[in-house]
Specification:
Rhopdopsin 7-helix transmembrane proteins; receptor; disordered N terminus; mainly alpha; 308 residues; globular; 10 helices; G-protein coupled receptor
Length: 308
């Protein structure tokens, strides 16, 4: 095999979450139960929004896309992780590793863009209600949706392009249960300072700016809500509070992982587990549990198709 500038390493060995067999079995049971219960909930949210004409507002259009993105995101890591719990040697090929990394950032950044779009939607609805129908027309909603997919794709392509130029010719053990930028970069057979700096700027700084911008936008929205009627104020505060919870769940772990130098911290794997498996499935569910319209429509859908 040519060892010049080509990739010598053809596979990576994943060290996994833990080496304890008992802990692996416990995690398998917990993650499987969570996965099998919450994932159908996301599918139900999508079906409910699509089947109820009363939920054709932009808010619910974006919520349905959030559920779709989160459900898709959960398929990137969780299924393979569950299989690897019972594998003696957790091996992933170089190509599969790059593919996993690509979709992780593609869907992850797409969801971040979507949260920005949802914040913009709430700002227009609450602060510019007379212009809402014009600004958030179906055409604009689809254009924003296309923009978030293109933005996620562009970001992910940059991540992958930077890694593909790195030579891998020695160690191939990834101290994680999936492939991600920080762990893969450490295995490169070259000085990676510039690449790490670019990665932190492209992922970490971008994530932090989005997070701070979203918090600032919701602070403005909540300040504007003060002048509304008590009923409208209560509904707006409830919606914004839910969005803020989702923003913290999505951006908090990402900031922890990508905004610091690529050093190992004891909590890295736990944060990564919540970031890639737990939180994505919870986000739409948290929103739905706090939204009376979606809950009522969901109950109607379940009653309609109930088999006696």
């Amino acid at each position: 095999m040519d060892t010049g500038n080509s990739t010598v390493v053809t596979e990576f060995i994943l060290l996994g979450l833990t080496q304890s067999q008992g802990a692996q079995i416990l995690l398998f049971v917990l993650v499987s139960m969570f996965y099998l219960i919450i994932l159908p909930g996301n599918v139900l949210i999508i079906l409910t929004i699509r089947s109820d004409p009363g939920l054709n507002a932009p808010l619910y259009f974006f919520l349905g896309n959030l559920a779709f993105l989160d459900a898709s995101y959960s398929f990137i890591v969780a299924p393979r992780m569950l299989v690897d719990f019972f594998s003696e040697k957790k091996v992933i090929s170089y190509n599969c590793c790059i593919t996993q990394l690509f979709f992780l950032h593609f869907l992850g950044v797409g969801e971040m863009f979507l949260l920005v779009v949802m914040a913009f939607d709430r700002y227009i609805a609450i602060c510019r209600p007379l212009h809402y129908a014009t600004v958030m027309s179906p055409r604009v909603c689809y254009a924003l949706l296309l923009a978030l997919w293109l933005g996620g794709f562009a970001h992910s392509i940059v991540q992958v392009a930077l890694i593909l130029h790195l030579p891998f010719c020695g160690p191939n053990q990834l101290d994680n249960f999936f492939c991600d930028v920080p762990q893969v970069i450490k295995l490169a057979c070259t000085d990676t300072f510039v690449v790490e700096l670019l990665m932190v700027s492209n992922s970490g700084l971008l994530t932090l700016l989005y997070f701070l911008g979203l918090l600032a936008s919701y602070a403005v929205i909540l300040c504007r809500v003060k002048g509304h009627s008590s009923e409208g104020k209560s509904k707006a505060i409830s919606t914004c509070t839910t969005h803020i919870i989702i923003v913290f769940l999505m951006f908090g772990p990402a900031i922890f992982i990508y905004t610091r130098p690529f050093r190992v911290f004891p909590a890295d794997k736990v944060v990564a587990l919540f970031h890639t498996v737990i939180f994505p499935l919870l986000n739409p569910v948290i929103y739905t549990l706090r939204n009376q319209e979606v809950k009522a429509s969901m109950k109607k859908l379940l009653c309609k198709h109930r088999v006696f």
